[in-house]
Structures
1.
Amino acid sequence: MSGDKIALSTRERQAQQKRKQILTASMTLFEKKCIEDTSIEEIAKHAGVGAATVYRYFSTKIELVIETAGHYWEQVAGKYLTELERAESVSLKKWSGYQRLEQILHIFCRIFEEEKAFLKFLQEFDVFVKKYEISQEGLSDYEDGILKLKPYVTNALETGLEDGSLAFVCSVDEMYFSLTHTLLSLMEKLAVGGDILTSDRIVEGNVQLQVMTGVVLRGLQQNSLDKK
């Protein structure tokens, strides 16, 4: 490898590292403060760089917020989906569709218990997107990151239909989006405003989520039993 190529490779690694520093800093500050109240200058200081450096990698704060959201999703999803893959790979038996879906819904419950800051950020990010009327095109990379979850869920649903452990009359896509949107909305609600009213404290948020995931599993399983 020539000296120029080595130098270029080093610069690329340094640029990637600097970019990651900025994203990590913004993610940390967005957790502590709301997105609107966090300035580029504060993010730069936390990342150990100048504000001009932040703008070198992200032309606007909106671009930085979107990239941070994608980075956050990648971190959280990567952690739990890797665990899911590992659990199935060491299993002595091939999982049924029901078992796969059960494990995925268990991950949703764990994310609620362990990643409340992430859920609060997601709700705030949705408000930010609406306020600044960010286009779907501007969110395409972010959406691609979110949809990495889809193959895991649709595979469980399709496998369940094939092996008879699950049954439903709608399409797999309809079930996927209905299921994930409902659960994520509930998780965000419970994480952000789950204790506003006195009555909100009667049943713990994690219990409510477990009840809902249990209802989903039993309903889809019962449908399959009724068909037999």
2.
Amino acid sequence: MWQRMSSGQQVLLKLRKMIISGELEGGARIAEIPTAELLGVSRQPVRIAFRLLEQEGLLIKNPTRGYTVREISGKLVHDALEVRGVLEGLAAKTLAEQGLSEEQKKTLQHCIQETEKLFNETDEFGDTELERYHHFNVIFHDTIIEGAQNVALIQALAKNNQLPMASAQAITYDQNQALSEYRRLHYAHLQHCSIFDALVHRQAGRAETLMREHSSVVILGETLRNVLSA
């Protein structure tokens, strides 16, 4: 069942976008109190967001206090996404070869159905819609990765997720480009449908190829593409 994101996750989305867009410049030092005041929230959600952004590789914890915004290298992001595609592709291939359990099939199908409802309900995403999309997107990816039952793969992916924008958690959405962003996420949803179909029919090669192609679609929105092409 979908549950609304916590305040920490909502702050996370805002800060992630500020870092990617350059509003928070690479090398800048940031701390809880001024950031909380800037966003009009308490320190607790900012503290949570800082920790998650550190895990995503967008913030570096200072030896004494506070964090430093990490410089985003286009090559680093590209390399991290390429590795993610290889690893998630391998997970999909392995799961297709093993065959979906009834529970895995039910979970993936539920994610697709709920996301389809979301796109049928609206032709523009606000915070609530993005929260729902994010929720089911993460479950979809985690189900495939965990379903592969490959400890080395899971650990390698967890390590790669510490690089900037490499994680399935790291979704961006630019409201100034609402139509193209909506279409991007809808295309990613259609890819989920194709991946699920390949898994159900145990088409290992197709599942791997689709998952590799899918790896960067949700993440690489207008904001990040503009930054990396600058």
